[in-house]
Design goal:
Number of strands: 8
Strand content: 15-25%
Structural class: alpha/beta
Distance between the termini: 47 Å
Order of helices and strands: HHHEEEHEHHEHEHHEHEHH
Radius of gyration: 19 Å
Length: 330
């Protein structure tokens, strides 16, 4: 097959997901370009405003607070948003969560309502969401160092947060999934906090954009290789595409995946990130590690956000929840 993306055979979308993508219109497949990045970020801030702490408390169902944690470079603070079900006494396991947004958009507050309803209540979890710095204003390794500083603080101040420092899962979606994978590598190599697990949802792992699925889904997925390249360039600047790029920037570059926590990896069959996610799980297995892989048939990038009530989205949420429960019971 030659001649560009039109020549590729592409997995069909799940009917319910496809209907949601169609209903979202052209915006669902809008391409992020370097020239349009500033406008994209401005629109995201308008479309995804930060909910207030009072709104996050949801009429007293949750205890929510903000913490300011010193950055490693001493030049400022990292904001953590912590939340837990109200009225639950004793220490709770912790989900340390990194939001998505291609490393260029998103915030720590807007992801919390879904995390609290979906996992904090049914599993008895505390959640800490990290407001890491975004590209291109902050290049690698700024965001990752923010996430590491927050993790160290959360574990060292487990008593303040009311969490069990021995039962921490790091996780994230899209860019947040890539950051979670990088954080697991970094804390392993620095001898930092040892999480029980890493939850990698459609993770952004590979800056090179040369997988089969990246080419296959060009112009088709809701986040395709052109948008992905723009985001990686924003994050890496002149280091974009460098042969010696650090695996802490792009975890797909890692050659040593031993001694990582139990890992959950998922992607969609009709997603740009499919093949890099599958390869990452396979590399963990080859290193003797523990990984659970799900490739959801007919799912595009962000399918469960676009179609939260679709059967496929519900199945994906149930699988993630079962994995979290198993890991936290170890």
């Amino acid at each position: 097959m030659t001649g560009g993306s039109a020549a590729w055979q592409v997995p069909a979308l799940d009917p319910q997901v496809g209907a949601a993508v169609a209903a979202a219109g052209a915006g669902a497949r809008e391409v992020l370009t370097p020239e349009g990045l500033a406008a994209w970020q401005e629109r995201d801030r308008a479309d995804r405003p930060r909910p207030t702490l009072e709104r996050l408390r949801d009429g007293g169902r949750f205890e929510v607070a903000e913490q300011s944690v010193p950055r490693a470079d001493g030049e400022g603070d990292v904001t953590l948003v912590s939340a837990r079900p109200a009225g639950v006494h004793g220490v709770l396991p912790l989900l340390y969560y990194l939001h998505g947004g291609g490393m260029v958009t998103g915030n720590a507050w807007s992801v919390l309502p879904r995390l609290l309803r979906g996992w904090a209540l049914p599993l008895g979890l505390a959640v800490v969401s990290v407001e890491y710095r975004l590209a291109p204003r902050t290049r690698f390794p700024g965001a990752l160092e923010d996430c590491y500083a927050g993790l160290v603080w959360a574990v060292e101040h487990a008593g303040v947060l009311g969490v069990d420092a021995r039962r921490v899962v790091i996780g994230g979606k899209s860019a947040g999934g890539g950051l979670a994978a990088a954080l697991a590598l970094l804390t392993r190599d620095r001898g930092g906090p040892a999480p029980l697990g890493q939850l990698l949802l459609s993770p952004m792992l590979d800056d090179r954009g040369d997988t089969f699925s990246s080419r296959q889904m060009a112009g088709r997925d809701t986040w395709d290789r052109a948008s992905n390249a723009t985001a990686w360039q924003a994050l890496l600047g002149e280091r974009y595409g460098a042969a010696d790029l650090s695996p802490y920037a792009a975890p797909a570059r890692a050659t040593d995946l031993a001694r990582l926590p139990a890992t959950y990896v998922e992607a969609g069959s009709a997603e740009t990130f499919r093949d890099e996610a599958v390869a990452y799980a396979n590399a963990i297995w080859q290193a003797g590690g523990d990984a659970e892989l799900h490739v959801w048939p007919g799912a595009c990038h962000g399918f469960d956000t676009l179609a939260p009530d679709a059967t496929l989205s519900r199945d994906a949420h149930a699988a993630r929840t079962r994995w979290l429960r198993r890991v936290l019971q170890r």
